[in-house]
Amino acid sequence: MRVAFHLHSYTGPRGRPLVRLLRPECAGLLLIALLSAGCGEVESQGERPVGTTADTLVEAVSDADLEPGSWHERSFVFISADPDSVVALPWSFHTRQIGEREVRQRDAWLGVDGAWGLLASEPDTGRVRDDAARILPGRSLRIRVGAGDAVAALTFRTGEEEIEALPGLLLAEWTGSPREVVRFHRSRIGLGSNELEGFLMDLSVRGEPGDDWTGDWLFVHGGDFLQAAFRELPRTPAADSGPRPYQGWTRIAVRNRQWPGVELEWAEVRSFEQARRDIPVRWALRSQDGELTGDLHSVGQHLSTGEGEGPLLPVNALFQIEGEIRHLGDTVGVVGILRHRQP
């Protein structure tokens, strides 16, 4: 998908020129603006039949004797530091093994003050690799690695325009689980010599054959004092109407903690008519021990539907969220991103 940038001239949903989202010495640039609606196709590396999505590629490389195998999903989520003018840049890289083939999906979005656009969506297929967790670049979504194959930069490029997300200082890391790895970084995004400071979550999740659960996740920050991530756990159908089980990771006042039991309740929903489903727009968070609580609400969303056989269609959503997190007497205003999926 090719994107047209509106440099210098874009005014965000709250009436702020985008140039003001940058540091004062950067005024003259625009950070990117929200994408034009009409876009052409962009080719990506690997084999990609025209007009396909990752789901249709799964069907194309499968047959009656092959079931979907293991999968890996890695998400990088940048959120700017200024809570009054939020710029969000989520990236998603998903790989699934089907027999001797891999189906890969690369996506990137841009959110500015609650308004959203899709930067790129690049599916393709290729041969199974020994290290499927190692993400591969696409046509417009590029990756630069550093020492130890650590991701040093993520780049979206179209024509002569380029935006780059740079994971910086590592603030916290949880690597003990074979299923997921979570990292928080100081970060910045840049266009040329102009930069916007913020925080970045790097979430890597693995799934085994027969395990199709990806679940929702959210990442919020309250400046230097608090960064937090939560990932939804599998649940039984009987539990669908109640609070959702999550696990969490927090860095609060430079102290790191993992939370094995957290509940996230849909405190308010609205109808998403295109998918004929209800989607959440307000959430209540609580740890099992009651030490961590919070209230969050949506201030903007990017909604899309997938293909389905029945009347209810799959939902893929990104919400920009605001609210507060409470911990041991401290109440912290937070901003962040929540990814929501309904299969």
Give a verbal description of the structure.
The chain folds into 2 domains: 1-196, no CATH class; 213-343, AttH-like domain (AttH-like fold, Beta Barrel), CATH 2.40.370. It has 1 helix and 17 strands. It has one helix at residues 54-61, and strands at residues 68-80, 87-98, 101-112, 115-127, 141-145, 151-158, 161-174, 180-191, 194-207, 217-221, 226-232, 244-252, 255-272, 277-287, 292-305, 315-327, 330-342. Strands 4-3-2-1-9-8-7-6-5 form a 9-stranded antiparallel β-sheet. Strand 13 (255-272) and strand 14 (277-287) form a beta hairpin.
Separate helix tally: 1
Order of helices and strands: HEEEEEEEEEEEEEEEEE
Give the helix proportion (percent range): under 10%
Q: Runs with pLDDT <50, length 5+? A: 1-66
User: What amount of the residues lies in strands?
Assistant: over 45%
Please give the radius of gyration in angstroms: 20 Å
Give the SSE map.
Elements: H1 54-61, E1 68-80, E2 87-98, E3 101-112, E4 115-127, E5 141-145, E6 151-158, E7 161-174, E8 180-191, E9 194-207, E10 217-221, E11 226-232, E12 244-252, E13 255-272, E14 277-287, E15 292-305, E16 315-327, E17 330-342
Antiparallel strand pairs: 1-2, 1-9, 2-3, 3-4, 5-6, 6-7, 7-8, 8-9, 10-11, 10-17, 11-12, 12-13, 13-14, 14-15, 15-16, 16-17
